[in-house]
Amino acid sequence: MADVIEAGAARDSAPPPSGPTSRRRATQRGNRATPYLFLAPYLVLFGVFGLAPILFGVWISLHQWDLQLPNRPFIGFDNYQDLFSSDSAIYGDWWSSVRATGIFTLFSVPLLVVIPLGLALLLNRSFPGRTFFRAAFFAPYVLGVAVIGLLWRFLLDANLGLVNLLLGAVGLPSDTPWVTDVPWAWVSLVGVTVWWTCGFNAVIYLAGLQDIPPELYEAAKVDGAGGWDRFRHVTIPGLRPVVLFVLTTTILASANVFGQALLITQGAPGEQTRTVVWRIVDEGLRDYDAGRAAAMSVFFALMLAVVSVVNFRLFRYRED
Amino acid sequence: MSKLRPVARYAALILITLIFVTPLVWMLLTSVKTYDVAQQDPPSWLPNPFSTYGYDQILNNTANPVLRWFLNSMLAATLHTLLVLVTASMAAYALARMRFRGRGLLFALIVGTLFLPPTSLIIPNFIIAERINWIDTLTVVVVPGAASAFGVFFLRQFFLSIPAELEEAAVLDGANQWQIFRQVLLPLSKPALATLAVLSFLTNWNDFLWPVYVLFSPERLTLPAGLGLLQGAYVTDYPVIMAGAMLASVPVLILFVFAQRHVIQGVSRSGLKG
């Protein structure tokens, strides 16, 4: 995403030849207050529901903030300490949810980075029916998590589900407990998520593939590079910013997994598939301990920020 | 790259399409089965006899007013989309076309929130919504999510790609900024506005986590939030549950069919090229 932003910034500072004059003229007309008037409606929304919650969240996390009690004493970093001390009441549940989210992310991200690339390569060339296939792959993504959750809960039902029926029809075991036991619950959650979202990533890869200049492939061909060599030396380097984008957004999305676990495995077996986001909203909005939930949120956001920074570093490093 | 022959390519594509589409077809078929046919082991593919039982149940049920949820969702998603379009386009215009103090910082702040996991704001946003008495209202599913950093970023990038010369004629005619924005820039931006409209509608229509926690009264729920109740009420009565899922899917699938090209191009461009 940083590349995107930089591209935007670069375009800003280097407008087309006639740009500077017309831009200067554009700023001179109208009132000094005009830009702020245009921004005002958005800034009210953004201030109240975008910026304020960030600061407010940190503030809440430093308090013992029970939603049902009027007194919210300041307690410093106690809520954070509770996340790390094994004798606190929430320690076990919290780290179990971190583990659940970790497992899900670890398995879903590589699949969601690699499989969509394969789909995009299949669709990259122009051929009859391409639009149809592209739409078919993308279609599940337009459905909400509530729909795909209910649908797959049904499909994965051990007795009535289509999945076990089809497996039985080809002579495989037809009694797999897809939603009630591990590791099957993980296979289900990851599999459904890949099915649901991989069309989205494939579309982004497709756009990236179309931006690679065809001359590079021609030149590689002239140099005698085979299909695999061209893939390794032209496609992959050409896609690097796209892969970084897909990787970063997919990690963010996977780490936020909630609806699938709530609706498909319902946390089973035990609490093993209860994820971080689920734990945060339960802690805050069901058990009313907003302080702890806010501390969990801040910690969670920081963890993801670190992951994103590491991502960018790794990709930058390899570019040199 | 790979030298897949056409036959192999089509075979692969058709197989993959089956994987993507079969679950959706199963949802449709189950929604028009009778309870008994849906319970058969082994299950039957065809809804024989064809039945409107699932739809009858959800549409005539007073405990779970599904039709009401549908209308709530429709109203919320429409208002949300309008709010995003108006606020984001105005802000994006200022950020793309005007010079003013704080512009760089403001844009950086807006883009910075794109990196933040949205769920990390849910607790403070809940408390803010509670303080202004928005919990369990339509407003709470329309407004907070409309602070769309993505919308501003996306439209700003699009506006930057429109040559400023096109506005010059309007200036010579004595148009003010608002007239230029309304009569020159917005008409030129229809594809981008349409893309953002579809994406905003999809996001709001499908939102699950927020409505589940901020709406309580059965008659105020949105469809995704209500589907959970439906599942609780009908447990394994799959024709009913799948009929509910169909009701939540059909509007966005129709929207997708009509706007397919725009949505897909919008998605790919928004991320990478602006």
Automatic annotation (TrEMBL), chain A:
This protein's UniProt keywords: Cell membrane, Membrane, Transmembrane, Transmembrane helix, Transport
Superkingdom of source: Bacteria
Organism this protein belongs to: Micromonospora robiginosa
Span of domain ABC transmembrane type-1: 98-311
Region annotation (Disordered) ranges: 7-28
Annotated localization: Cell membrane
Database matches in SUPFAM superfamilies: MetI-like
Pfam families, alphabetized: BPD_transp_1 (PF00528)
Transmembrane segments: 33-60, 103-123, 135-155, 184-207, 242-264, 293-315
Gene Ontology biological process terms, A to Z: transmembrane transport
Coiled-coil region(s): none
Bilayer topology: Multi-pass membrane protein
Family: Belongs to the binding-protein-dependent transport system permease family.
GO terms under cellular component: plasma membrane
Descriptive protein name: Sugar ABC transporter permease
Lineage start: Bacteria, Bacillati, Actinomycetota, Actinomycetes, Micromonosporales
Cross-referenced CDD domains: TM_PBP2
InterPro entries, sorted: ABC_transporter_permease (IPR051393), MetI-like (IPR000515), MetI-like_sf (IPR035906)
UniProtKB/TrEMBL annotation, chain B:
Record localization: Cell membrane
Protein's UniProt keywords contain Transmembrane: yes
Transmembrane segments: 7-29, 69-93, 105-128, 134-155, 192-216, 236-259
GO biological process: transmembrane transport
Keywords attached to this entry: Cell membrane, Membrane, Transmembrane, Transmembrane helix, Transport
A Pfam family reported for this protein in Swiss-Prot or TrEMBL: BPD_transp_1
GO CC annotation terms, alphabetical: plasma membrane
Topological type in the membrane: Multi-pass membrane protein
Location of the ABC transmembrane type-1 domain: 70-259
CDD domains with a match to the protein in the record: TM_PBP2
Family under the similarity heading: Belongs to the binding-protein-dependent transport system permease family.
Record-given protein name: Carbohydrate ABC transporter permease
Originating species: Micromonospora robiginosa
